[in-house]
């Protein structure tokens, strides 16, 4: 198992080309947020916007559109029950994020199936939260795309069939290989299983143990893979690392970290990373 | 009567265990906020989130869901008239907060009865505002749970039958003992009646005399008892103390303190408390 | 004509009594904000809350409740077409503010009549914006109460019958005397006509020439008269002075002042005033 | 082609006259923001308000009114399908901004036609985004007014018929002359085609490549032309320059710039410009 370092940030977060426009940095379509869990998809969307994706659209329950725009006028809105519009937004996306606050009822299921029916091999598809639970419960096939799962241990148990106490690196890797997908297993010292390697995140803080932290991570993975699509695999690792590096910094002066604070800190954090030369590590920048 | 000191903060707000997740810090379900008083339950929910509870759900009138998520995407929403969903959220909670902005009409009453029918002895149940008024007016029995009342003097008169001018420590304690509950009697120098002891809060400022201050306190008690559930009795005292300690600090530069400012200051304040060693008191940290 | 000085702030903004509660600082009921002009009543309400009124209720179009609570959870909401509820809120108020964003159609008129039918001599009644226009147009009698009008010059023309070019101090005073009300005539160097005296505001900045500035002033007058009800006449003067004093300070670094910034600056500004001793003027505090 | 310099800011952003009121600084009516793209018109409106226009009204889908007022109580709301009300708001405007988030369906088209039917030669009319696309697709005639188009290259292709790869200064100028309008062609080093001259913007940063950046520019052009209406042509240039100058400053410490940050920075930025004397350039002020 290879330990991630801040080196991954330097490899991924490089200066933007001078002659670029919003299309250069990809489109993210996020799908989730039922009537009860609207905050989850708002937090994920905020992460995608603040990470620097070119265009972000949030397909969610219509009761959430007002809060979405109050928090984040930069995101566009779609009604997630409008299957035609959602299909078209999926087709247009560089990265799709499905699951945050989606819920697990019959409507959630139909929405998930619609998303999965419309992805393609050219896209990054981040599958999070209740989308994972629904897949496992309903026996839904993995969709087309560069698939990235972001389960916590219980969700991984449901998807992989490996019980929480028995989730060894070896067993996890075996399932990952069958899936042919990247698995970001969220836990104390999160593990990332890719086709090539197993990575471990050596940083993080218990101040992150707050509802919405995972939604924010899913949105960051969506944002990073869209923006840095030519190095999408590294972008996943960078998103995971940045999420905890920012949290650690905030936790120096806070007992807990509110998830939206990580997103709001992204533009400044990423600028510092962009400026890092090889002799200077993040620790020096505080 | 024992005077509370900042010692209570040091006893309660200790470093989080390294290997923890959001489940470690409990779930809070808050019930309140009718069409007119939505701000009350939003302020209480903000306090619970910022105090560091693991998961926070707000059951309120549906007209408040948009403002809730605009202020606080970290909280989940439920329609407080959906009695089945509310029952299930009560069952799942470490701490229940009922009352802020609940109102006192027939719908409020049905909601309160539903909450009370679903609590258990393993839970902290904070009863605030109109929930106290309704109990007194309708003769509703105290529910199961570790019960914490947070009345102001008029609400205490309604619940205890002791008129405001006659609320002596002795009389209050006698009623508290009959109730077998903790009573946080909000007044100039708030008093806390527990099974063991009577505490007095020696701090506080008239800058706190602003609508919503009590809702914020109820939410903090909910958050602290969920997060520090293994020392729930002390957590009540710590919440009361922290609420006024933060207000005093803000009031050094403000004529009044807006309740939401106390909540937003919690993560930083709690970090300072966590770092305090025995030789240093809060005063030194300003 | 007497020039107002910062002395008025020292006379009005004195330290709060130690043993006080939110009832000590009065209740403000604001009525206004139709579907189109919701921002006006939100800005007025924010001013009343930030000025330090004990309890603030905003009676407005129901389409505004969500934005009200997103901006200001400290305010309570009422539907301004619910005449019974509005009547009851008027009865309970120390100060009533009617007019910001009320509009001038048939519904606005019915709401205004309902407000006027329910005020009493014991209350401060601030009449602003379209409420003044409606009174003049419909020939509505002045209601009971300590009446304070806050017209700009065109609204004053409508109410007084004096054309803008002819609004001399003498003529204005004569109408004021007939009305028996305080008139805050908003203009370059605002004039305040009271039963005893004519005051002129010597401060202010063109950076205040922004929509919503008058709504904020009306809310501040409502907040100050409720909070400092025992010196309500001086409270009007203090509100007018503070409004421009804060704006001048903000305008040192901004080309324009957004009205909500004045409200948000109130708690800090008022604290500085409270601390002023007689030898120090505001200018020294920057 | 003439390079724009910060000189244009000094010429346009001069001290406000002492005796001015909100009417002095013009009225802006913005039309756009369907159910899906509400954020676009909110961002444009925020730019117009923060730029210092006297009164700002936002005609948009009614689902956006709540988020509009949550973000910006200073703006007034109108339902953009209420053609009579929109017509009246267009008549009253100094500057009209149409297009941000308007969409391109049948309803969008009817709204656009209503706007175009009601402008006059005395007004600045900023035509942006889908309004340009609709004009080209439906063959709609240019309306009356001082017309300012703000297309990106694809929108310009649709309007001018010149393909993106072939958009030379000469060809663009020829079409501009036929239109008799100002064209702000948004691209790497934005070009502005006026009746007299072609200007090039030498500043800007890839950190601006974020959705909503153009909506913000359209709103700024609306705000500047209303506020500085007596020098409206220069006001367009100043808005374009200020938009990128602020972005460059923010981008010194951020990897990307969120569009709303530019608007929020306007009051402070414009104050600095107002204070600049001829020997000092913007660079000195950082």
TrEMBL record, chains A, B, C, D:
PROSITE patterns membership: YJEF_C_1 (PS01049), YJEF_C_2 (PS01050), YJEF_C_3 (PS51383)
Obligatory cofactor(s): Mg(2+)
Highest taxon of the lineage: Bacteria
Keywords on record: ATP-binding, Lyase, NAD, NADP, Nucleotide-binding
Catalytic activity: (6S)-NADHX + ADP = AMP + phosphate + NADH + H(+); (6S)-NADPHX + ADP = AMP + phosphate + NADPH + H(+)
Matches recorded under Pfam families: Carb_kinase
Binding residues for AMP: 186-190, 214
Domain (YjeF C-terminal): residue spans on this chain: 5-273
Alphabetical list of InterPro entries matching this protein: Carbohydrate_kinase_pred_CS, CARKD, Ribokinase-like
EC number: 4.2.1.136
Record: residues binding (6S)-NADPHX: 40, 101, 152, 215
Family indicated by similarity: Belongs to the NnrD/CARKD family.
Quaternary assembly: Homotetramer.
Cited function: Catalyzes the dehydration of the S-form of NAD(P)HX at the expense of ADP, which is converted to AMP. Together with NAD(P)HX epimerase, which catalyzes the epimerization of the S- and R-forms, the enzyme allows the repair of both epimers of NAD(P)HX, a damaged form of NAD(P)H that is a result of enzymatic or heat-dependent hydration.
Protein name per the record: ADP-dependent (S)-NAD(P)H-hydrate dehydratase
UniProt organism field: Limosilactobacillus walteri
The gene coding this protein: nnrD
């Amino acid at each position: 198992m290879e330990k991630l370092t801040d080196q991954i940030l330097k490899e991924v977060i490089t200066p933007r080309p001078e002659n670029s426009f919003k299309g250069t940095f990809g489109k993210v379509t996020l799908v989730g947020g039922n009537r009860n869990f609207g905050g989850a998809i708002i937090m994920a969307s905020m992460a995608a916007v603040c990470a620097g994706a070119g265009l972000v659209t949030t397909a969610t329950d219509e009761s959430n559109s007002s809060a979405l725009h109050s928090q984040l006028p930069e995101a566009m809105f779609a009604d997630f029950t409008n299957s035609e519009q959602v299909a078209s937004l999926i087709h247009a996306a560089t990265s799709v994020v499905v699951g945050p606050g989606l819920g697990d009822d019959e409507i959630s299921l139909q929405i998930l199936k619609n998303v999965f029916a419309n992805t393609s091999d050219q896209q990054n598809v981040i599958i999070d939260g209740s989308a994972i639970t629904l897949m496992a419960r309903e026996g839904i096939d993995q969709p087309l795309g560069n698939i990235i799962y972001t389960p916590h241990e219980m969700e991984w148990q449901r998807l992989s069939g490996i019980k929480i106490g028995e989730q060894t690196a070896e067993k996890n890797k075996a399932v990952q290989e069958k899936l042919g997908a990247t698995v970001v297993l969220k836990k104390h010292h999160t593990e990332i299983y890719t086709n090539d390697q197993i990575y471990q995140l050596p940083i993080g803080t218990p101040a992150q143990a707050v509802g919405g932290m995972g939604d924010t991570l899913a949105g960051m993975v969506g944002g990073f893979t869209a923006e840095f699509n030519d190095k999408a695999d590294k972008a996943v690792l960078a998103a995971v690392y940045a999420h905890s590096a920012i949290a650690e910094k905030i936790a120096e002066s806070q007992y807990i970290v509110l998830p939206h604070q990580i997103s709001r800190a992204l533009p400044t954090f990423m600028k510092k990373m962009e400026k890092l030369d090889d002799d200077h590590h993040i620790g020096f920048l505080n």
